[in-house]
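It would be a great kindness if you could assist me with a short task in structural biology. Thank you for your consideration; the sequence and its tokens are set out here.
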Amino acid sequence: MKKVFLVFLALVGLFEKDVRAQEIPMYGPDLNQKSLRINMGSQGVGAEFGYGINAKTALRLGANFIPLSANNAVNVSGFNSTSRVSASFSNVHLLADFTPFANAHGFRIVGGAAYFMNANGNLQMQPKNNYTYGDIVVPAADAGNLNMRVNWKGVAPYLGFGLLKAFPNHAFNVNFDLGSYYLRRPDANIVGTGLLAGNSSQSAQLQRNLKDYRFLPVLQLNFNFKL
């Protein structure tokens, strides 16, 4: 009888331990959960590795890059010219997903930082028409060109939020990120050649005009594969 009673007590203890375990709020990423994420959006294309460190928090390490270029996308009044705009951004980043609400496990607060190896924009302009100075006619090809460069290279913090779960329940899921990087204050300069060389003196004014252009918005679609 005594042995039966001891067995009964042991079973009760196991039952209580199991109940307590079920009361732990595992509504976010599970411990040690892993995923590979392929993404695309306003910061280009990239990939991330995700790792769940506790019931509410996951980390992701990744990289993104975006190369853009367009011809004749910029027109300056009174200056008939051809133009070429290009931008090159690439970064490595470490972000944390935090799931704060048990009844809204598809909502995540996302924070972290990135290092931008490349973060620059470039505008090249060249006159279309010949330049006339008195009786002298200078062909457009010899008049020179303008090159405006802006560079945000460096460390940038990130803050935003995510929609839908950080990790797939099964093999695959899709989620979204919305937020912004806060870039360092940009370096800007103007380099002119030929008859346009005098515009190089406007570099300081260009830098003042662009000093507050520091937000890089992120609107991103993520394809997550469970590992």
The first strand starts at residue 34 and ends at 41. The chain has two helices and twelve strands. The radius of gyration is 28 Å. Confidence is low (pLDDT under 50) at residues 4-26.
